[in-house]
Structure formats: C-alpha cells, structure tokens
Amino acid sequence: MVFCLIYAVVIFAATFFGAFVGLGGGVIIKPLLDLIGHDTIAVVNFISACAVFSMSITSTIKHIKAKTKIEFGIIIYLSIGAVAGGICGSKLFDYFLTLFNNSLLKSIQGLVLGILLVVSVIYVNTKNAKSFKLTRPVPIIIVGLTLGFIASFLGVGGGPINVAFLVLFFSMTVKEAAVYSVGTIFFSQLSKLITLGVTHTIPKFDVVTLIVAILCAALGGIVGAKMNKKVNEKVIQKIFTVIVTSVALVNFYNAIAGFIAR
Length: 262
Hints:
Blueprint: H1 2-21, H2 26-36, H3 41-65, H4 72-99, H5 102-124, H6 137-154, H7 159-170, H8 174-198, H9 207-230, H10 233-261
Helix pairs in contact: 1-2, 1-3, 1-8, 1-9, 2-3, 2-10, 3-8, 3-9, 4-6, 4-8, 5-7, 5-10, 6-8, 7-8
C-alpha cells in the first residue's frame, strides 16, 4: 500500500511535467522507480510504458479540444517511424535481458539516458543553435524511428530527447515541441505495449499498482496540457532545464550505484 501511494505521487508529478513541458513522464518515472527499487526493471518498464501511454492520450485530446495548432502530417510521419523504432527497441531490450542481469542493465540504461539528457539540455539552451526544417516524409520517418527506438529501449517516453530532436530538425520552440513530443510518445509506447502483448513478455505485476498508475497518469496529462497552454516559452524552457538536469543526475547515480553493486 505504501509503495502504491509513492508510485501514485511519482507518476502524477512525472506525467504532469511530461505533458506540461514535453518530458513525456517516463523519463522521470523510470529512474525514480529504479531508485525506489521495489520492482524489477521489466516491471518498472511496463508500468512506465502504461502510465506514459495513458498520459499521452489525455494530453493529446486536451490539446485537440483546446484547438492547439498542430501539423498532424509531422506527427503521422514521426509516428510511423516511432512505431517501427519502438518495436526494434523493445526487442533489443528483451535480448539484453538475456545477456545482463537486472542491476547491470539498469546501470547501462541509466548511463545512456543520463548522457542523452545532458546533451538535450545543452542543445535546447544554446542560443542560435543550428537547426533544420524537415518537410519530406522519409527524413521525418527516420527521425521518428530513432526516437521510438531510444524511448522503447531505455523504457522511457523519451520526452526531453524528443523535444531536442524536434527543435533541431523542425526549428520548433520548446513549447511547440512539447505538444509534438507527446503525440509521438503515444505511438512509440503503443508499439511497445503491443509488442509485449504479442510476444507474451508482459511481466508479472500488481494489478492495483498498475490501475493507480494509469489513473494518475491520465490526470497528470490533463492538468499538464492545460498548463502548457497558459504559460510562455521562457517559463517552459526554464522548467524543462531544471527537471531534465535533475533527472540526469538521478540516472547517473543509478548507473554508478549499479556498477558498484556488481
């Protein structure tokens, strides 16, 4: 019961900021649940995927109802790539589970994610950073495939990495990228959950904890999307920077602790 309550608080806060500034939620949920250490890496990945998927649904619906300006062509092409990438990332994760123990794989994920988060923060905060404006389907699909693969393999929504890629390849502001990031996350997590179901690799989990996670994530997505509409670009960028930097530090701590535990 205590862990269920802790999970509820973590997941609501994570998905709120996920929808608010484009973090996705999983990038906060995964390292914090790893840090708590109550469940195996497979269960944490599954709960995170379900929570982020729930958040992406409610957040996207909220933006559509609020008539947020969205180029659905970009989301569709990104999502096509994200689905394929998500399946590949999930399969690679399952393969790595056969090669490494739970602690070592957790450390590898934490190290890779921490590095990617630091790079994302540096790029987003670099003034006049080089950016592109992709318009053709194939390059957009390749970007989506890369994002889907990273998100699925690392067991996170991929939000901060998505935001950095969207700013880089589509010349978006962080606030604009937040909306597209959540839309792309929907499809990458959908592909991950479908893959788990089809391959019968869904881990044993506590049903009550999963239900609480999904409900808290849905609520977090609604409230976060509402806040995204209310605040300006500068506020979103600052919050993005603080949270992503903090999460990167947690990932590095998890990685170091895991390597030492070996």
